[in-house]
Each structure stands twice: as C-alpha cells, then as structure tokens.
Amino acid sequence: MEQILKFENVSKSYPNGVHALKNVSFNVKEGEFISVIGPSGSGKSTILRSINRLIPISGGSVCLDGVSVSDQKGRKLRELRRKVGMIFQNYNLVYSLSVLQNVLHGCLGYMNGIRGVCGMYSEDDKKKALALLEELGMEQFAYNRASDLSGGQKQRVGIARAIMQEPKLLLCDEPIASLDPSSAKTIMDLLRDMTSKRNIACIVNLHQLDVAVKYSTRIIGLSKGEIVFDGVPSELTDEMIERIYGTSRENLMIGASANE
Amino acid sequence: MNKRIPVGVSGQKKMYTAFIIVAVILFVLTTLYTNFNPMTLIENGDAFVSFITEDFLPPALPKSSRIPGVLSSVLVTLALAFSSTTFAAIFAFFTSLFGSEKVSPFPKLAKIVRGFATFLRNIPALVWAFILFSSLGIGTGVGFAALFITSYAFMVRAFVETIEDVSQDCVESLEAVGASFPQRVIQAILPSCLNGFLSWFLYCIEVNIRASTIVGMVGGGGVGLTLFTYIKGFQYDVALSIILLIAAMVIIVDRITGRLRKEIAK
Predict the structure, then answer these.
(1) A190: helix, strand or coil
(2) What is the pLDDT of residues A127-150, one digit of tens each?
(3) Which of A186, B69, B206, B230 is the most exposed place for a label (fewest CB within 10 A)?
(4) Within a domain: residue B39?
C-alpha cells in the first residue's frame, strides 16, 4: 500500500509558550481510517492543521505524498492542500450561499484566474457536485441556503465539499462533536463508506472512544503533545486509556458499545 | 442570626459601589473645573427666552427667490454624505481585508493597518475639515475629503470586526480547499459579510448626514453653509426654518436607513 503521509519528529510550540506537539512521528497509508484520541489540549487539532499547513510547524518534517509540506508556498501549497480534504466541527460553510455553491467550493483549488474568483464552475463540475449530493441524500437541498440546514445536513455538505476535491487524505476535526447521536452515526457511516469506496485515507479527531473503537482501522492516542498509543483498536486496553486520559476508565464517559 | 443570605456574585456589589462613588466624585470635580454655574443660566434666562421668542420665533421662509437655492443646498448635503460614504466603503472594504491577522495574506501588517485606521478615525471630521480647508481652500470637494477620511477609517475598523466575527471559519475551510486569497475574498468573505457591511454602511450614512451639515457650516457647502449665512446675517427666523428643514432631512434619512438595516438583519 502506498504511503501518503509521513510525520517525522514534528514539534510545534505556539508564541504563548505552549508546546502543542513534541517529537510526533507516524505514517499513514492509503485506505487507513485513523482516529486520534486524547484529552482537550493534547494537540489533536494541531496535528490535523499541520498536515495542510493551516498551522506552520516549528520543527521536524511533514511529508504529504512525497512532498515536504513546510517548504511550500503560493501555488505549490495550494496544489498540496487540494489533495487534502477537511471537515470541521462547526461545518465552516459559507451560510449565505447555496448548498451547491458550497460543494463546488471544493473545486476552487483547481481553478485559476477570474473563473475561480467569480465561481464560474464548469458544467462537468456541477454535474459531479450534484451527483455527490445525491449520493449523500441531499439532492433536494441543492438550491437551499446552507444556513437553512440542520447540523447533520450541514456536515454532509462539508463531506461533499471535501470529496469534491478528489483528495488522497481526509482530515476530520471532531466531525460529530456538535451533532445528535443519530446524525453522528449517519456522518460516521458516510465518512467510512465514502472514504473506503474511493480509497481515501482518513484521520478523525474524536472525543468519543466508543466511536473510535468501532470505526477505525487504527487509533492514535495523544497526551500532552506526545503519542502514547498507536495501534489497532483491539490493543487499546484500559491501561492504555488511562495513559492517554491521565485517569482511570471509570472516570470517563464512554458509550456502551466500547464494552461489548 | 437573622443574617441575610447574599445572592449576587461575590465582590460584585462592592465593585459597583466603588464605581458609583468614583463617578460622583469625578462629576463634582469636572463640573467645578468647567465653571458651570446653573445660576448664570437662570439669571440670563430672560435674555435667552427673549432671543428665542423674538428673534427665532416664528420661523420665517426665506425670500421666494432663494427657496430653490436652499432646497438645492439640502440636496448638496445629501449628495455629499452619500457619495463620500459610498466611496469610503469601497476603499474600506479593500483595506479591511488586510486588517485582520486571521484573514490577511500578510498577517504582520494587520496591526499597522488597524493602527492607521484608528489614528485617522480619532481625529473628528470637523478637525479634518479645518485642516483641509486651511491647506486646500473651502469647497464641497474638500468637504467630501473630510467626510471620506473619517468614514473610511470608521468602516475599516467595523469591517475588520465583521470579517473576524462572521467569516473566520469559512475562510479557514476555503484555505484548506486550496483556494487563493482572491478566491477566499469573493467566495467566502464577501457573501458571508455582505449584510454586515451594508448595515455598517447605512449607519455611516446616518452619521455622515449630520457630519456633512456641520462640515458644510465651516466651508464645505450645502445646507450647513446656507444656515451659517443666515445666522451671520442675523436672520434668525429664517435660520430656524432651515434648522427645522435639517431636522426633517435627518429624521427621514434615519428612518429609511433604519428600516433598511432591519430588513437586512432578517
């Protein structure tokens, strides 16, 4: 399997003196579905955002598809970023635009000049976007304002926008943290199905241990900016959970399915 | 034993008490410093009342030959306010894109941009008018410039805050998509902030209608200058009609912009 992402001794310290990441190393291969778990402030968001350089790293190297991310600027950086789809906890849509326009934003990385700026998308792109919306069961909302949707529907638009990029890697920053349990399941199922169908590697930041265990092919546990666990879900013992969260399992709110 | 149970946030009551004491002391001291004496008002009250009743009342119309001139001066004031605000809004939009660390492609410059706007804004339009009239001479063009500078600076600050409030999230997502800066501006910032921008723009028009009257008085032309001419000519009764006309103009514009802002907020 092709290796897509390589983290080598990555560290990140913020100007306020916080060391968010300390010597983090891991690799991601094609088709993997990785959950990153850890308490708030352990560096989960920083890891995701250093992959597409929304946050510049302070040390080490991040290699995406064989190219070092930190050396890229301008057009080259845009080309790297469009290989990486991203999904956010707060959906981060442009709420005054239509659902279809939001999905088409996924093409912007491929467009240059006035056509890209003014949003003059090709008919092929529009067909592709509509097909994606249909696949996600959202075709009847294509011309609604994004602000009129429910949380689960907004996140589906977020997924469509990310898949529209034809990414090699999908980053999900707590995709279900703002959703009700039923929408959360829909979104996790969609993420797993759509990425495995297209052979896209997926990294998901999660607070829900049971979800991580159920969906992932691999789990990375973070504590205070360091990787303390990296393995398949079955290896995630109570002892490991205690190392990640710094407290024993009884003190954690964990959904029922993790105990099955 | 019958001690009352406190219900407020601890320490809050003390803070408010201290605040009120300081405010009262400041009020007394500052009033003494300004030599304000309510007695002078009362002693000279007769003169004031007779000035109002004899010189100002009843309002009189200007000579019929002058009426078209007065009305066109109102139009000049309205036009001055509207065109300078519109011009300022366009420039402020482009400047504000560089005024936020979170959105600007040159985050290090953002502080300088905001500082520059704050500096311009903290000098009132009237002072700008005097500075510009002294160097460039009087006229509507210079009045335009004075209004432009202050409303430009004000809108830069307001637009930057709107951008940071409204579009930070979607700018981040478009950055992740690989969108270029112009694409982020047109596809994310503009659609998500447009209503906010328009609302600030309309507010600025309200402010500038008043400001353009005052800037007009000191040499910018328009209805302000007309009013000033009548006051200087001791025609106070005519001046009163013009003051009423100005009040009507301001109220009408306020109602229109207020209504539009409500529509936008929906």
Answers:
(1) helix
(2) 999 999 998 888 899 899 988 998
(3) B69
(4) no
Assess if residue B87 is contained within a domain.
Answer: yes
pTM above 0.90, yes or no: no
Separation in Å, CA of B58 to nearest CA in chain A: 54
pLDDT of B17-34, one tens digit each? 999 999 999 999 998 888
The DSSP secondary-structure symbol of B152 reads H
From B183, B172, B164, B190, select the one nearest B93 (Cα to Cα).
B190
Which residues lie across from A28 on neighbouring strands? A5
Across the beta sheet with A59-64, the strand order is A19-29, A3-13, A59-64, A67-68
Chain B neighbors of A158, CB-CB under 8 A: 173
Domain assignment of residue B205, given as a range: 78-265
Nearest partner of A7 among A77, A61, A71, judged by Cα: A61
Q: Which range is least confidently modeled, A178-182, B88-92, B261-265?
A: B261-265
| Residue type at position B199 | S
Tell me, what CATH number does B157's domain have?
A: 1.10.3720.10
Question: What chain A residue is nearest to B182 in terms of C-alpha separation?
Answer: A117
- On whether residue B18 sits in a domain, the answer given is no
Helices within B1-139 (DSSP H only): 12-33, 38-43, 45-50, 67-96, 110-121, 125-136
Q: d(Cα A65, Cα B190) in Å, to the nearest integer?
A: 33
Most distant CA pair in chain B, distance: 84
What is the domain count for chain B?
A: 1
E strand or H helix at A228: strand A226-231
Chain A residue nearest residue B174, CA to CA: A105
- What letters, b where the CB count within 10 A reaches 16 and e where it falls short, cover B203-219? bbbbbbbbbbbbbbbbb
